Amino acid sequence: MKKFKRVVMSIIIFINLLFTAGCWNYRELDDLAIVAGAAIDKGADGQYTITTEIVEVDGSNDTKSTSKLVSMRGKTILDAIRNGISVTGKKLYWSHCKVAILSKEVAEEGVTTVLDIFIRDAEIRNVVNILYSQQDTAREILEGQQTTESIKSFALDKILKNETRLSKAPKTDLLDFSIELQTKGTSTVIPAVHLEDVKGSMIPRVAGAAIMKNDKMVGELGEEETKDLLFVRNEVKGGVLVRDKEVGLSAPISLEIFGNKTKVKPVVESGKLKFKVEIDATVGIDEIEGNENFIDDNAVKRLEASTSKETQKNVEELIKKIQSEYGTDIFKFGEKLREKDINKWKSVSDKWEEVFRNSEVDVDARVHVKNSALLYKTLKKGG
Amino acid sequence: MRKEQISDKEAIILIMMFIIGTTLIVGTGGNAKNDAWISGILATFSFIPLLLIFSRLLSLFPGKDLFDIFSMVFGKVPGKILSAIYIWYSFHLGGLVLRNFGEFVNVVAFPETPLFIPMLCLGIVCIAAVYLGIEVMSRTTAIFVPLIISIVFVVLILGIPQLRMDYIQPILGNGFTTILVGAFSTFSFPMAETVIFLCIFTSLQTKKSPKRVYIWGTFIAASMIIIITIRNIAVLGNLAGNFYFPSYVAASRIRVGNFIQGVEVTVSFVFILGVFVKCTVCLLAACKGIAKVFNLKDYRSIVVQTGLLMIYFSYTVYYTIIEMNYWINKIYPYYAFPMQVIIPVITWIIAEIKKSRQPLTNK
Questions:
Q1: Which keywords fit this entry according to its UniProt record (chain A) (predicted)?
Q2: Where residue B161 sits, what CATH number does that domain have?
Q3: What is the pTM of this model?
């Protein structure tokens, strides 16, 4: 009897093994099309065209991953994505998607209509970077050639991650973007990407930014302007300041930014709103092309003063330009006002654009030279 | 039969897991936006008097549960009616928690698996735990709690680079009323839900332990909830109220180097255990109540039936997660208020009066 019981039990256990051995709707790796990045365009007929970069893992001896592009069309983004099945025969797997590139048309029409699915769907992580394509279509960016990485989207992700050492483009991922979008008064910027012709091959380059008003693109910023913008937004962590004749030098010198701290203080002076922007940057002299030496104390002071003045001027110009041309608060002034003085903010928030356009901004930039790297004396050219 | 007994430590752990259980994932005080953490503090403080009343009730009648107390205080028939209300409340709450878990798994991990399957799996575990009794329940929880706490704190520390303290400001910016509304919702979910423990804490060691257990359990859980709320706001900013599961999204932001990613899975582990504890406690309370009302010898004979009913109930109670969230945010605080506050307070007042008279009548 005991033996019989044992046999029955072991049979039941073995049958159980069959049922508990795995999920009934498992997905094999080679049945998946792993999406690395997507480019979103809108055609003339109002349909979206989504181009995805799909990673192909080659399972032979040396695992090499390459990518190919798949385009699909649909009325909405999800419609287009699912239509992809009729092209690839595989269900696209979005967990590793790193970038979403928007064409100019899509950006001008409104970004939220496109990006809602990216933040809503559980499969797509919210670390997806948003990029704005300065080319005619977004697809072209993914068609470009790549130098360091075989998968372009991952390369773009890396570029944006290390962008903090360059400060020529903002880094806006999906969550940051949504938070800024939902903040009243604040407008956001998204990094721009374009193709650059390097010896005949077109290579994507991330530089500059697109200015958004609510969720619609209204203008573009150049590289240097973006850097000034990032100074105000306190997002500069590295980068290079090149100073030339404007600060009274014979040849350009490069100052490497080691750190920056910007404080924006809203002040109410006799009923009028005023913003004080205090930029405090630490730089090191890393390259001197001319013959200048900065050995004596005053020389460094002079350099600091002139560089500060130059930075201040650039930032002021940018703020003026944005205020008069676009009237979108991409500097997060409204946000700062809300944090510091909620009552004042409540009284102006309904007509914030007008208030922003007319508010006075006081920029005070201080650049500190920390060191001049290894060289104490600049090399003398020709003895 | 041997009398079941749990130590104070295990009871504290049970209360703590009960409170943080679903709240860690679902978040709390969403109405108060970036002041939700103040709402949390406020709710904790306003819960203290109620907590003292709960523990006083338990110490007034040592070894008795809420259903016994009702019949002793109000008489037999009114006591049974009140007991029925609490049976419904704990049964319903257990169903809600189970549904919450089902929706979480369905949205986050297995979109193609029917909603019923994960709920059934966890429900069966809960039934087994209740069948084995409160000792097994509390000791199982005690085994996992160190893991839970370390997961919560490791995720918290790994998330530090993602924090932006600017999002917390301006403090008190949205006015005091929103904070009060947020505090009320935090008070009713999860703090005052601990009223259910009145139904099951018949096996504490001493007369003093209810107070100790309630205070420590609430204190630990409330501080964890407040810290997590601050973390969620500092990571998600004004979006924290937009998500169903803010902690999960906040944890999914963590990216340390190239190798520590996707730690949000560990958060779901915390959620599963929290749901397990909460659901088991509710089921146990409901079963004990039914057994008391119908004068059964042991509640164990109805565990399986009640448990299965609870699973079916949780499956049918809402149509979608959208409806569920609306109900939890908008209706639940008012729905639960009588069970959480009014009835216990009235019971306590009458019990105190009766107790003070009793010595006289005895003489």
A1: Germination, Lipoprotein, Membrane, Palmitate, Signal
A2: 1.20.1740.10
A3: 0.84
